Please model this.
Amino acid sequence: MKSFTYERPDTPAAAAAAVAGTPNAKFIAGGTNLLDLMKLQIETPAHLVDVNGLGLDTVEPTGEGGLRIGALVRNTDLAAHPRVRKDYAVLSRALLAGASGQLRNKATTAGNLLQRTRCPYFYDTAQACNKRQPGSGCSALDGVSRSLAVIGSSEACIATHPGDLAVAMRVLDATVETVDGKGNERTIPMAEFHRLPGDKPNLDTTLRPGELITAVTLPKPVAGTHIYRKVRDRASYAYALVSVAAILRKDGSGHVAFGGVAPKPWRVEAAEADLQKGAKAVTDKVFSGAKPTEDNAFKLKLAERTLTAALTQARA
Amino acid sequence: MRIPRVANMSRRDVIAAATACAAMGTLPVPAAAQPGGTERPVLTTVDMTVNGERRVVELDTRTSLLDAVREHLHLTGAKKGCDHGQCGACTMIVDGRRINSCLTLAVMHRGSTVTTIEGLGQPDHLHPMQAAFIEHDGYQCGFCTPGQICSGVAVLAEIKAGIPSHVTADLNAPMEASVDEIRERMSGNLCRCGAYSNIVEAMTEIAGRPA
Model:
C-alpha cells in the first residue's frame, strides 16, 4: 500500500472541500472496497478524508412520505430498519443478499453505491485494463468473461457493477443527494448516477471530483410484493450472475431492474408495460441490443428465468 | 531462500519477511506501480480500548486494525488469512459489531472499543462459545477458530437484536437461531478443514441456553 496522510473532518462541506482541495485525495467510509484496492495498489490515494465523523447516519421520514437515508447508515442497519423492512422490502432483501455479515456491518449506503464497477482483470495488475490504466486495453474482451456484462458495455470495458443495493435503489427510483467543496448541493436520480463505460471506463459515476454523497432519498412506497432474487455460484457471499429487483402486483403489473448484467443497474421502464405478458416479453425488450460474449450469453436466458421465478413468487 | 539471521526475530517475523519476499518475487512491481501516495511514511498516534484496557500506539497510517492488534499490541489470537475481507479469520467485535479487522484502518478507530478472542475468554475462564467449540470439536487446525468464535458470539447477538438475514422468511417476524440462519450468517468465516457442521452444533447449543 502507498502511504497517505489522513484527516477526519466533522462537517460534510469541510470533507468535500478537503477532497476537492487536496491532490489525489479520496473519501473513506466503511473502506471495505477502497482498502482492498489500496492493498493491491489499484487505488493509490495520497490523502484519505475519513467521513465517519460527519453524522449522516440516520434514516428519517420525508415530507413526501418517503425516507431519507444518511450516507453513512451501515448496510446492516438499513436492512434491519423497521420502515425499510415494511415498506421497501426489496431494499432489505438486496442488502441481505450481498457480502457477509462482517462486511455489511462496516459498509455504508453511499460507499456501497460507490464500490468500483469491476472485473477480475481490473484486479490483475499483470493484465491490461482500461479502467485501472486508461488506454492500456481490455484483457476481459478476449479473456474469461463468464461473470461480466452482457449489455451497456463498450469496446473499452465489459465490467459489471457488482452491487445489490444499487439495483434495489434503481427500481425504487431513489435519488442521490450530494454536496461539493464549495457547499453546492444537488440531487442525482439513480438512473443517472452510474455511467456506462464508453471510452472512459475509469469513471464509474457522474459524481464530480470532490463531490460527497450526503444521503439517498426514497420516494413514498410503491405497493406490490417486493422481491430481490439473486442467482449466484454459491448460496451465500457471492456476486450475482443475474439478480432481479422487482415490485410486482397480483395483476402482473409492476417494476423491475436487473443486476449482474451491466456496468450499472439495468432497467428499461418501457418494458415494464409488458410484465403482464410474462417474463420473455419483458426481457426481450430489456436486453434488446445485448452483446454477450460466448462465455456469458447464458445470462440472457437466466435473466428471463429469474424474472419468471419472481413473477411466480408474486402471484403466490 | 535464505532467511535473514536477526537476533530476537520471532517465528512470525520470519514468516512475515518470507511472505514479503515472496510477494516481491511474484508481483511485477514496476508495471503494477501506480502513481500516488506520499513520499514518506506517515506516522500517527491511535488510542483505543482493547479487551477492556486503554491502549495507545504509534503507527503508520496504513496499518490495518488487525496489524495494529497483532504486531503492535501482540495479541495474536486474531489471524491474517486472506487480508482482503474474504475469509473472516481476522474477525473482531468492534463497538459492538463483528467486522473484518484486516479491512479497516487502525487510525479510523480512535476511541473504539475492540474485543478480540483474548478478550472473550482465557484458558482458565473460557467464554461459553469457546467451551462449546471444544465440546463439539468445532475446529481442526484452529487457524480460523478465533474469527469463527468472535463471529459466532456476534451472530447470536444479531439474531437476538432482531437483525434479519438472507434466509429469514418473514422480515417482520421474530427470528430464531435455526441451523439455516446460523449457516447463512456465518458465510463470511471460511474453514478449510471443514468443521462447519460442528461449528453449527456449538452455536446451536449456546443459542439454546437461557441467557
